[in-house]
Amino acid sequence: MSERPPTVDVPQDIIKLKHPLRNFFDALRVKGPVQIIAMGSSSTAGRADVVPYPHRLEMYLRQHYAGPLPNVWIDVLNRGKGGEEAPKELDRFDTDIFDDQPAMVLWQVGTNAVFRKDEFNFEDVVGKIAEGVHRLAERPIDVVLIDPQYVTAMLRDDKAELSEKMVLEIRRIADDAKVNVFQRWALMRHWHVQNDVSFDQLLDPTDRPDMLHQSDWSTLQVSKALCQAITDATPSGSWLSETEA
Description:
Layout: H1 12-15, H2 22-29, E1 34-40, H3 42-45, H4 53-66, E2 74-80, H5 86-91, H6 93-96, E3 104-108, H7 111-115, H8 122-137, E4 142-146, H9 159-177, E5 180-182, H10 184-193, H11 199-202, H12 216-232, H13 238-244
Parallel strand pairs: 1-2, 1-3, 3-4, 4-5
Helix pairs in contact: 4-12, 8-9
């Protein structure tokens, strides 16, 4: 891996969320603690020396709103468990999501159904994702699905086609339920194809031979892009003066 970090861009057409984050916005306006739940597997939980994205996102969101909303405290609660997929994650919704009454849920999902495809029934996982989104959308919670990471393990042999299928299914479920998707797959592919970022730079060098998990650098870049997507999807302008009134 080169010593100098790569230079990448973050296309707005990739990271832009389709729907405004109204519940997150309302939570900011009332000036109370703002809870965000990060549900998922190892990309959420973190591994080795890689700082997981929920911790970085929490820091970036606090920095972003520290000026206009100094009395608002934002927590991103990490509820990731390595190796899990939608069926088991759905079993944790009551205790790990609903009990905390979050304003927003970030659900990173779909990777293990591809990477460990012999252990999961693809259609069953897709059905559980749809069921989970339905349960979340019934409550005053903003939902952002995070699709799989674009890495070597997801592109080997017949996994590439299945990865693309999972990305499309997640997008379809989100469109049907009118919730958001953060397109991690498309963003990382853009960095690899358009910005010439190698897989050695995208991947955690300690993750051999799986070549599945993101490096600390790419996790940082994804966290920054997700923060931008969230803040861009939150109404701004005149509402700041209303919160200060």
